[in-house]
Design goal:
The chain folds into 2 domains: 11-200, Fructose-1,6-Bisphosphatase, subunit A, domain 1 (Fructose-1,6-Bisphosphatase, Chain A, domain 1), CATH 3.30.540.10; 211-334, 3-Layer(aba) Sandwich (D-Maltodextrin-Binding Protein, domain 2). The radius of gyration is 20 Å and the shape is globular. It has helices at residues 11-20, 28-48, 71-86, 107-110, 224-235, 252-262, 281-294, 325-334; strands at 58-62, 68-70, 92-95, 102-103, 114-122, 133-141, 162-170, 174-180, 183-190, 195-200, 211-213, 245-246, 264-268, 298-300, 320-323. It is α+β, with helices and mostly antiparallel strands. The N and C termini lie far apart (60 Å). Bound molecules: 1,6-di-O-phosphono-alpha-D-fructofuranose (AFP). 1,6-di-O-phosphono-alpha-D-fructofuranose is lined by residues 67, 122-126, 215, 250-252, 255, 278-279.
Length: 335
C-alpha cells in the first residue's frame, strides 16, 4: 500500500505521530500540548487586534509581582487556565498572574499525572508598542498520588524534572516551540488554515553565535564578572571574530527565541538593587533552560545550573545566563 506524503504536518498530527513511537503512552502529554496550542490561537487573535479594541492598557490591578497588570495578561491567563481546566490532561496549574496554585478538583483532572506552570503573556510592557510578546510554559509529572488534588509540592520541583517546556511568540509570525527530552520542534501558525505547522524540526542552537542580549542600562549595577564579560563582548577584535552584536528587545521570549535560532547569549543578571534579578525561576528561567539544554545550549544563574535549583516558593526570582554553549563558557571564565 502506498503512503501518502503530506507537505505540512500540523501540531496535532505531529504530537499524534510521536505517540506511534510509544505504543504504551496514554497520550496525556500530547493532549496537554494540543490544549496549549488551542489557547494560544485565541490569545494570538486578541494580541493581533490589540490596537483596534479597547483591550489595551492597564486593567487597574497589580499582580503578585507588584507590576501593573495589562488586560491582555488577564485574558491570556484565563485562556490557558480555562483550556487546561476543561481538558483532561492536567491536574492543576500555577501562573505568574496568580498568587497561588489552582488545583483542578474534578475526578477527571485529579486523575491526570501532569501539572502545568505558565507565564501567560511575557513582555506585556511591550503590548502598547507593537513589539513581539509571548507565552512560556512548562509541564511536570506530579509527585502526589494521581487521583487526589495537587498540592504546592507538585509545583516546587527543580527544573530538571520537567517533562516538556515550550513557548509561543506572537510576532511577525506566530510560533509555538516546544521541547521534550527527545528534541525541540517549532511550529508556525498558518493563519489561512488556523493551524500550527511544523516549520523548525529538531532545533539545535549553534555552538557559538554573534549576539549578546542584556539590559545595558543596568551595567554599573552588575557584578564585576558580568561587566568583564560585557566588556569582552564589545572588545572582541577581528583576530577572534569581531565584537558581538548587541540585541535586546526587553521581551524575553523574542530575545531568547532569536538567540536559540541564530546563536547567542541572553543575560538578566542580578543588580545591586535587585540581587536576584527580575525573571521568575518557575515561569521564565526553568522552561527556557530546559529548551536550551535539549537544543545543545546551557543555562545558569552564574553559580549553578538553572535546572538544579530547588525552588522554595512559587514566584521566586533568579539571575539568568542562557545561550550557546561556547558563549556560556566564555562568560563562565569571566565570572
Ligand atoms: P514584562 O512582562 O513586565 O514586560 O517583563 C518582561 C520581562 O520579564 C522579560 O520578558 C524581559 O526580558 C525583561 O522583563 C526585561 O526587563 P528590563 O526592562 O528590566 O530589561
Amino acid at each position: 500500500m502506498s503512503t501518502i506524503k503530506r507537505q505540512v504536518m500540523t501540531l496535532d498530527e505531529f504530537t499524534i505521530q510521536q505517540l506511534r513511537d510509544f505504543p504504551h503512552a496514554t497520550g496525556e502529554l500530547s493532549g496537554l500540548l494540543r490544549d496549549m496550542g488551542r489557547a494560544a490561537k485565541r490569545v494570538n487573535v486578541e494580541v493581533n487586534k490589540a490596537g483596534l479594541v479597547d483591550i489595551l492598557g492597564d486593567a487597574g490591578a497589580v499582580n503578585v509581582q507588584g507590576e501593573d497588570v495589562k488586560k491582555l495578561d488577564i485574558f491570556a491567563n484565563n485562556q490557558f487556565q480555562g483550556v487546561l481546566q476543561h481538558g483532561i490532561s492536567c491536574a492543576g496549574i500555577a501562573s505568574e498572574e496568580l498568587d497561588d496554585i489552582v488545583a483542578f478538583e474534578d475526578n477527571v483532572s485529579c486523575g491526570s499525572k501532569y501539572i502545568c506552570m505558565f507565564d501567560p503573556l511575557d513582555g506585556s510592557g511591550n503590548i502598547d508598542v507593537n513589539v513581539s510578546i509571548g507565552t512560556i510554559f512548562s509541564v511536570y509529572r506530579r509527585v502526589t498520588p494521581v487521583g487526589s488534588p495537587v498540592t504546592l509540592e507538585d509545583f516546587l520541583q527543580p527544573g530538571r524534572k520537567q517533562v516538556a517546556a515550550g513557548y509561543m511568540v506572537y510576532g511577525s509570525s506566530t510560533m509555538l516551540v516546544y521541547g521534550t527530552r527527545r528534541g525541540v520542534n517549532g511550529f508556525t501558525l498558518d493563519p489561512s488554515i488556523g493551524e500550527f505547522c511544523l516549520s523548525h524540526p529538531n532545533i539545535k542552537t549553534p555552538e557559538f553565535g554573534n549576539i549578546y542580549s542584556v539590559n545595558h542600562g543596568n551595567f554599573f549595577q552588575y557584578a564585576t564578572g558580568v561587566q568583564k564579560y560585557i566588556d569582552l563582548c564589545q572588545r572582541k577584535n577581528k583576530d577572534n571574530g569581531g565584537p558581538y552584536t548587541q540585541r535586546y528587545i526587553g521581551s524575553m521570549v523574542a530575545d531568547v527565541h532569536r538567540n536559540l535560532i541564530k546563536g547567542g547569549i541572553f543575560m538578566y543578571p542580578g543588580t545591586t538593587a535587585k540581587p536576584k534579578g527580575k525573571l521568575r525561576l518557575l515561569y521564565e528561567c526553568n522552561p527556557f533552560a530546559f529548551i536550551l539544554e535539549v537544543a545543545g545550549g546551557k543555562a545558569t544563574n552564574g553559580i549553578e545550573r538553572i535546572l538544579d535549583i530547588q525552588p522554595t516558593e512559587l514566584h521566586q526570582r533568579s539571575p539568568l545566563f542562557i545561550g550557546s554553549r561556547g558563549m556560556m563558557e566564555e562568560l563562565e571564565s569571566c565570572l
